Amino acid sequence: MQRDNTNSGILYKNTDDWKIIQQGKLNIEGEEQRIIGVSRKNKDGQPMVELYRAIGTLKKNEDKQSEKSPNAKGVVNKIKDNGAMTISAWKETSEAGNPYTSLKIREFSSDSSFSDPNSERNVVYNKEQNEETVDDIDW
Description:
Blueprint: E1 19-28, E2 31-41, E3 47-53, E4 56-60, E5 72-76, E6 86-93, E7 99-106, E8 122-126
Antiparallel strand pairs: 1-2, 1-8, 2-3, 4-5, 6-7, 7-8
């Protein structure tokens, strides 16, 4: 008999060579999303940055009543998949000399050109200048 995994999941130790290199916000159809960029390699061994959206939080359960009580509690947002969009990224440097990446998303279309340098962009800032940055990805 197969177990029903509806509304359940698992977290385990990450053994892959992943590194959080950026954090920021991305506005998708008027809704601000907190995101992180993770440097990793794809199945062919090529470097890439994978984007993750915050879906919730966990905090230590300070009111644990018994061994069966959860160790942590929190809130998770329901996520509704409304399809996919294209995303483009530009390496930028702020007036203060800090590197960052600007992002632009659009609906898929026959005109997927992102060459307009004056287009509105969303911005992802590097956590610290000393860490690996999007500049380390060859794109």
